Fold:
Amino acid sequence: MTTRGRQAGNNKPAVGLNRPRSARPAGAPAAQSLPDAELEVLACLWREADLTAAEIRQRLAAYRPMSHASVLTLLKRLAAKNLVARAKAATGKAHVYRATRRPDPTYRRVLGRLVQRLFGGSRVAMVASLLDIGRVSPEDIQEMKQLLRQLESKRG
Structure:
């Protein structure tokens, strides 16, 4: 007979079952590899700080519907990784959550992987694909030109 976390026939813990789910190599950044659901909650907090779990759920409902309990679980996991902090709301019983780190390193890491996996390392192919997705406004074009000028001046 096997009990949860024990190998049959002895009292030793089963291999791998006692390791924390969020275990990562020593020195690895907490945001190194987040599941998609955690990353989406964190991205919501990067866009708007100081949100309650209900507000996060509402913001994500269009593309990732989930229960209130699921949002709270994700927030708890992110807090355990020191990626979000919570504080008591000014009124009521709710807590508000805020990202504790800037998004830039995560953006670079996620996009770097995407470029390698989907576009064979070609940043130009990725940008071209993004521009093919939908309408590009004249304002978008001007911003992209400005970014290119800044890049040229850094390299020049």
Observations:
- The longest strand covers residues 84-88.
